[in-house]
């Protein structure tokens, strides 16, 4: 979903609440409260357009609530303040969930997915106890180790050189630890 759609939905929701309010009351309200609400809504709209992971949205909600508290001494309808705060909070939660879904996840394929994987030796190459075969990520790989291998032994992939995987016994710690 693009940010224009989110901004348009927010604008329509806020404009409906603003049209339901009494314009005479809004004109006589405390200008600081009105400006805080306007800036708070602006921050919420900016949150929809910028990847800030909720920083501007949280600031927008805080400004909106402070502005609403300032305006509670006037005759601004309470349902309007509650509706705008609820819409703002729901939009912020929606944006945070969408942003967290785009975070990088661990690699599950390629060299980065292979290195560190643990699997069992399926067969040894005839004539050598240092090379064998494993089944990893749906493929058969030829492996080589510095120590003798045994069928069924658990090994950890430490490197890849071409089509050959370099392995070590799984009970040893991986390199770099």
Structural summary, described in words:
With 177 residues, this protein is α+β, with helices and mostly antiparallel strands. Helix content is 50%, strand content 19%. The chain folds into 2 domains: 3-101; 110-169, Nucleic acid-binding proteins (OB fold (Dihydrolipoamide Acetyltransferase, E2P), Beta Barrel). The chain contains 6 helices and 5 strands. The protein has a 5-stranded mixed β-barrel. A hairpin with a 2-residue loop joins strand 4 (154-161) and strand 5.
Brief account:
This protein is of the alpha+beta class. The chain is built from six helices and five strands; from the N terminus they run ααααααβββββ.
Rounded to an integer in angstroms, the radius of gyration calculated over CA atoms is 30 Å
Helix content bin: 40-55%
Q: What is the terminal separation in angstroms?
A: 41 Å
Low-confidence segments: 16-20
* Strand segment count: 5
């Amino acid at each position: 979903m693009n940010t224009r759609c989110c901004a348009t939905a927010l604008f329509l929701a806020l404009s409906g609440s603003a049209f339901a309010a009494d314009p005479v009351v809004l004109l006589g309200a405390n200008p600081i409260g009105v400006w805080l609400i306007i800036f708070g809504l602006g921050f919420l709209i900016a949150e929809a357009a910028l990847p800030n992971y909720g920083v501007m949205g949280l600031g927008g909600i805080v400004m909106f609530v402070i502005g609403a508290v300032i305006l509670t001494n006037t005759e601004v309808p309470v349902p309007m303040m509650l509706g705008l705060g609820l819409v703002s909070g729901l939009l912020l939660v929606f944006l945070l969930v969408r942003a967290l879904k785009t975070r990088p996840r661990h690699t599950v394929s390629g060299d980065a997915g292979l290195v560190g994987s643990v699997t069992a030796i399926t067969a040894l190459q005839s004539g050598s106890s240092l090379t064998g075969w494993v089944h990893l990520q749906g493929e058969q790989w030829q492996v080589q180790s510095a120590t003798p291998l045994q069928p069924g032994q658990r090994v950890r992939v430490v490197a890849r050189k071409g089509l050959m995987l370099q392995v070590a016994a799984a009970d040893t710690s991986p390199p770099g630890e």
